[in-house]
Amino acid sequence: MTAQRTPSSQRLHIAFFGRRNAGKSSLINALSQQAVSLVSPVAGTTTDPVRRPMELHPLGPVVLIDTAGIDDEGELGRLRAARSLQILDETDLAVLAVPAGEEPGEADARLVEELKRRGTPAVGAVTMADRDPAGAVAQAERLAERFGFPFWACSSVGPPGVAALRQRIIAAAPVDPSEVPLLADLIAPGDLVVLVVHLDAGAPKGRLILPQVQAIREALDAGAVAVTVREPDLAGALRALGRRPALVVTDSQVFGPVSKVVPSEIPLTSFSILMARHKGDLAELVRGARAIDKLRPGDRVLIAETCTHHQQKDDIGTVKIPRWLQERVGGKLQFEWAHGREMPADLEAYRLIVHCGGCMANRRLMLSRIRRAQAAGVPIVNYGVCIAHLHGILPRALTPFPELGELMGGSAG
User: Fold this and answer.
1) How far apart (Å, rounded) are the C-alpha atoms in residues 166 and 55?
2) Is the model's pLDDT at 412 over the cut of 50?
3) pLDDT > 70? residue 40
4) Taking the domain 184-273, which CATH number applies?
5) Model confidence at 407: pLDDT above 60
6) 297 Ramachandran zone, left/alpha/beta (phi>0; psi -120 to 50)
7) Residue (of 46, 42, 41) closest to 15 by Cα position
8) Which residue among 19, 124, 299, 348 is least enclosed by CB atoms within 10 Å?
9) Do domains 184-273 and 276-411 have the same CATH topology?
């Protein structure tokens, strides 16, 4: 897979913050050596976050995110500033831009405090340093001491250039934003892995979905043998293989019939549960499944997805899961939906959050949403864990993860 084809969810997210006209857009253009963002002396030119996928050696594929000024004013300006701060949910590394000769404002200080609270790595840039190179260097030293992370004087049009800042960014970046593999640590070289793909009306024509492709690639990278089948062909495939698979992974929607075909001694899980571990906190999502049994008719349930897609006739998030939850509760629930990168501010109003597998989100965003739910005191579960619990097969789905044994006993349906 080339750098340009690497999904955004698997890239390091580097976001640039600062006041209006702090030089963020010019800085990104200089770092990427492309006109990624519109540059103008008019304050507030950048209105919505602008994303630019690129290769940053030796980090590999990254996404550079340009944001609106965090000090924007007026009703619309405050909305722009709030949207900029929402980018922190998916930021693996933050770059704070402060113009040479200007002192940081209250908005800068609040941003730094939020970065520290979240534990987000940061680098600072004293921009427009060509105006007074010596003064900019001294300013960078003062800001580094004040804020507690390195600053570097740089200019997008002359010396000192952005090369040194690039090295600072590389040095400060997390080694791997997706620390937990999808399945590579569950298998060994030579193992046989069976992947069960469900091809319903919602399946993309002519291709597989990202978790399925990623699972195949990780199995191959681990030196394992990956066999991909549809659920109607699973029984025949298991008989034809001649040896027992080390792991079977299935689509959540057909976990029930697949679990009846796969012998109990073979570890079995789902793509969605693997994604829950890969992108977030599987233990917390398993705990969230227990709240399903406490739901009562009339309770509010939020169903959240990180991407937007055309809804099919029997859509998993808008049709199937609501139907299964109401069957379990024995009455009507109040469902609300959130799509894309925004979540409701009043999470406390919900009794349960059911989240998608997060295949289009990065790990930082998924963990941020889980922590927000925890802070609001609202249980959160993802599609795969929810479906397995509703069908009484969650303990079976967690067999590859013995460390969750204690939770398994309390979460069976």
Assistant:
1) 12
2) no
3) no
4) 3.40.50.11420
5) yes
6) beta
7) 46
8) 348
9) yes
CA angle 226, 228, 229 (to 5 degrees): 150
Please name the amino acid found at residue 65: I
Q: How far is CA 323 from the centre of its chain?
A: 27
Residue spans of beta strands (DSSP E) within 210-366? 225-230, 247-250, 268-270, 300-305, 334-339, 352-355
Residue that is written with structure tokens 């109040």 in the block:
334
Specify the CATH superfamily of domain 3-172: P-loop containing nucleotide triphosphate hydrolases (3.40.50.300)
What is the per-residue pLDDT across 144-187, written as a single tens digit (0 to 9) for each? 999 999 999 998 887 787 888 899 999 998 865 556 889 999 99
Segment 113-147, tens digit of pLDDT:
999 998 999 999 999 999 899 999 999 999 999 99
Which residues are CB-neighbours of 159 under 8 A, at least 6 positions away?
130, 133
Domain boundaries of the chain, sorted by first residue: 3-172, 184-273, 276-411
Peptide bond into 211 cis (omega under 30): no
Q: Are 206 and 393 in contact (CB under 8 A)?
A: no
| 8 A C-beta contact, residue 293 and residue 395 | no
Max CA separation in the chain (angstroms):
75
Question: Considering the domain 276-411 in this protein, what is its CATH number?
Answer: 3.40.50.11410
Q: Are the CB atoms for 52 and 60 separated by under 8 Å?
A: no
Estimate to the nearest angstrom the gap between the alpha carbon of 156 and the chain centroid.
31
- Own/partner pairs for 343-346, CB < 8 Å, 24+ apart? 343/304, 343/369, 343/372, 344/302
Q: How many CB atoms lie within 10 A of CB 326?
A: 16
